[in-house]
Amino acid sequence: MSEKADTAPLSFTEKVGYGLGDMASNFYMGFFGLFLLYYYTDVFGISPAAAATMLLVTKVIDAISDPAMGLISDRTNSRWGKYRPYLLWAAVPYAGLGYLLFLGPDLSPTGKLIYAYITYTLVMLAYTAINVPYSALLAVISPVAEERTKATQFRFVFASLGTLTVGAFATPLVGWLGGDDQLLGFKLTIILFAVLSVLIFWITFATTRERVKPQPSTGSVADDITALLKNRSWMILVFTGILIVVGLIARFASIVYYMKYYVNDSGEAIFLIFDRTAILTSCGLMGQLIGALVTPFLAARIEKHRLVMFMSLLHAVSLALCYMIPPDQFPLIVLIHSVGIFTFGVSITLLFSMYTDCAEYGEWLTGRNTAGLTISASMFSLKFGSAVGGAIPGFMLAWFGFVANQAQNDVAVAGIRLMFNVVPAVYFLAAATLMFWYTIDRQTLQQVERDLHSRRGAITQ
């Protein structure tokens, strides 16, 4: 007799537990996206161009490690499942390497650059080891697309809360813990986020289950890659994800420069313990949180790819509006920025739900389970997008003659405005255009679910 697929709704506890995993990830990735380039240029003392080059060059390793981790996790068989064990095993190395990234040893300029290359590469490898399996877990947490969408919503609610926590409290903590010594402040602040990350990843491990039992991956790596490349919608989604993340991270990495050198934020608190930079960042991330919360409501009424298309277009419009706002209109800057990040909250929540849809569709199309490889390749696209998005401001700062910790000339300020507004807008427009070619709609997914339930039931006879 065949085993009936577990199609019961996910419990609230499990959805929260799964979502918390991305909070743990974003304690680091949010911190890196918002402050790493600034830390390298204005605190650790690396030139903008050198830091930007490092962010790009190190992605060569990710091009190998991310798919490799996907293939490894697809072939993992343990009493905890394929993907959950890595939440347990990789949490401590991930936290420790993040601390080393901000250790800030007193080295020569060349030594500092080498240290940055080594520590950033290692922390990205640790991120791969824990986040590729975490993301692939979504594909097996439920066989029902609607339940995966709900779990994705919780994921990005907590991802938003994680980045919001970083955006709101990082600069106050750096100042409070380090005083006038920003290097010490960054080093002590990252310790707090490292400890929290470990604890939260372990909670995610303890509260989730793997319900889907796909056909084991026993074929060759070449066969898995061939099967993946047959999935055209996955390829469209990968490139859309790159464009959206490049746009977002380019803007995030520019916030500190925009506030310090264009808005002339002195770092003084204007509300409780929060300075203008913390307020702009946290209000924007509250917009992202709201976007993640309303995503299921919107996705129930509009096809996912069309919703991503519209939100990306709206984000580009908000960036164009923000470019025209003078520096003394800080409340208006906050409002328009928050609207833009709201649209990203919707888009990124949908993207990760659509990645698991692509994994299901790929298995239906080719008969091969490549969930880990599908998600890992998608994760690489996001990490590559993050690297490019973080590097663009660095190269632009160098091009426009930026000099750290000095008053900037008009040309440098113009460059900062462009990298904060215009450059991200171009990428969001391109993402909106690309989604025209995505073909997996609601009707197709319903057919895929029915067929896969039948196949998986037959396997267990």
TrEMBL record:
Residues 14-442 form the Major facilitator superfamily (MFS) profile domain. The chain crosses the membrane at residues 20-40, 86-102, 114-144, 156-178, 184-205, 234-258, 278-300, 307-326, 332-352, 373-402, 422-440. Keywords: Membrane, Transmembrane, Transmembrane helix. InterPro entries: MFS_2, MFS_dom, MFS_trans_sf, Na/Gal_symport. PROSITE patterns: MFS. The keyword Iron does not apply. Gene3D superfamilies: MFS general substrate transporter like domains. NCBIfam families: gph. Belongs to the sodium:galactoside symporter (TC 2.A.2) family. This is MFS transporter. It comes from Congregibacter variabilis. The lineage of its organism: Bacteria, Pseudomonadati, Pseudomonadota, Gammaproteobacteria, Cellvibrionales.
